[in-house]
Design goal:
Blueprint (H helix, E strand, L loop, with lengths): L4 H10 L5 E4 L5 H13 L2 E6 L12 H17 L8 E7 L2 E9 L12 E4 L2 E4 L2 H14 L19 H4 L12 H7 L3 E4 L2 E4 L1 H7 L12 E6 L9 E7 L3 H14 L3 E6 L1 E6 L3 H14 L9 E6 L2 E7 L20 H7 L6 H7 L11 H13 L4 E4 L3 E7 L6
Parallel strand pairs: 1-2, 9-13
Antiparallel strand pairs: 2-4, 3-4, 5-6, 7-8, 9-10, 11-12, 13-14, 14-16, 15-16
Helix pairs in contact: 2-3, 8-9, 9-12
Length: 401
């Protein structure tokens, strides 16, 4: 929006309206959250930091510009529900620094601590109940487009890494057909006249998706204790690559710290604490089913003395509950599931987890987690909901006497 300098200067000259807002300096967090949510709930718009209400370009100090950009991103993640994906750009006009915040029209209805707002004319207004009900009804229809198929602002085809997206394209495809193939696979999606990377495209085809989708990584911690205690923290890692690499890295972390007892009768018999096949299924399920619109937390893997815990942000999809997980199959991120089901595991992983691809899509994952873990330890793993976060606890098997 207002991509050319000439167009932007003309908008500044004409003053604020339903599509543009001026701020001399970065306002209070809650106030800016209201402004961003109001644009997202309407047709979208632009907020310029460093411009007076009368259109005079004041500018922002260079160091303050970096701080302002970071703060805006944090506000979108922490102060607006659900998250608003924005596009930020640092500009230099008349030897003065500006921060341009482009807010796209959203498929969701966004709320701040102060309520629901919509942009009307040159100001924001709190929405009355009737208008809010109509907006919810309208945008619930738009949510037919799943979150993993929505575009990520500030991205384009070149944001996706060619070695990563080539995995999902026909080998030897002509260069002039690549864009169309990426659109067909929904790794790219249309945003007006622009091709943008989809959420799934960023998660699978970028080496650091967390740079664009906040907290889209796996955090793993190993404690030599039964509870979280920094004094007994043995190791901690953040895995931030494409999702398939995150799965492998988190799995190898768990494998590294899984104790294995052994007996020699005729040959050697190993007795691991955890079924590594069950652990692999649990990590894949957490990655595929997490709600990537929830950015307040990341997937977390904790290994304690006697148990393993895995946290995945987001409520269970559709009518699934913790009681019917074993028998229900509902995929929140259908595109992600399809992409992961196409990637082959290497030979060592295939033998270890007894499957060819990251995801087999037969609905057997939860059953494998429960059955194999219970057979090994004698205790059934436990699924629990805490607000809008799912926790899986797998209990360690004790070594044989």
């Amino acid at each position: 929006m207002f991509d050319s300098l000439t167009e932007l200067l003309e908008k500044i000259y004409l003053g604020e309206d339903a599509t543009i807002e001026f701020k001399r300096a970065l306002p209070h967090r809650n106030s800016l959250a209201d402004e961003i949510a109001a644009f997202a709930n309407a047709r979208g718009g632009v907020i310029l930091i460093g411009v007076n209400d009368d259109g005079e370009i004041i500018g922002v100090d260079r160091h303050a510009l970096d701080t302002a950009e970071k703060t805006v991103i944090e506000i979108c993640a922490d102060s607006i529900e659900p998250i608003v994906l924005i596009f930020t750009e640092k500009l230099r006009i008349d030897d003065k620094n500006l921060l341009k915040i482009e807010v796209p029209r959203s498929l969701f209805v966004h709320k701040t601590a102060n309520g629901y707002f919509m942009r009307q004319g040159s100001s924001k207004r709190e929405m009355p109940t009737e208008q809010l009900a109509r907006l919810f009804q309208t945008r619930s229809q738009a949510r037919i487009i799943a979150f993993d198929e929505q575009f990520v602002p500030n991205t384009h085809k070149e944001t996706l890494r060619e070695p990563l997206y080539q995995r999902f394209l026909t080998e030897g495809a002509p260069e002039d057909e690549i864009d169309d193939l990426l659109l067909k696979r929904r790794l790219l999606v249309k945003d007006g006249g622009q091709n943008r990377a989809s959420v799934a495209g960023m998660l699978m085809c970028h080496e650091k998706p967390d740079d664009y989708l906040y907290n889209s990584f796996i955090q793993a911690v190993h404690y030599l204790s039964t509870e979280k205690d920094a004094n007994y923290q043995l190791d901690a890692k953040d895995f931030k690559g494409p999702l398939d690499q995150q799965i492998i890295d988190a799995f190898k972390f768990a494998q590294k710290y899984t104790a294995v007892a052994a007996r020699k009768v005729i040959g050697r018999i190993d007795y691991p604490e955890y079924s590594m096949r069950a652990v692999f299924e649990a990590i894949v399920n957490a990655v595929v089913h997490r709600d990537y619109s929830k950015t307040v937390s990341k997937i977390r893997l904790f290994m304690f003395d006697g148990r393993l815990e895995l946290y995945s942000p987001g409520a269970l999809a559709n009518t699934v509950t913790v009681d019917n997980l074993r028998y229900s199959q509902a995929t929140r991120n259908e595109l992600l599931a399809r992409l992961l089901s196409e990637i082959r595991l290497d030979d060592d992983m295939e033998r270890l987890v007894k499957r060819k691809h990251f995801l087999e899509r037969r609905g057997e994952g939860v059953g494998i987690i429960l059955n194999e873990s219970e057979t090994l330890s004698g205790k059934t793993p436990v699924y629990e909901m805490f607000g809008e976060e799912l926790r899986l606890t797998i209990f360690a098997a004790k070594p044989p006497k």
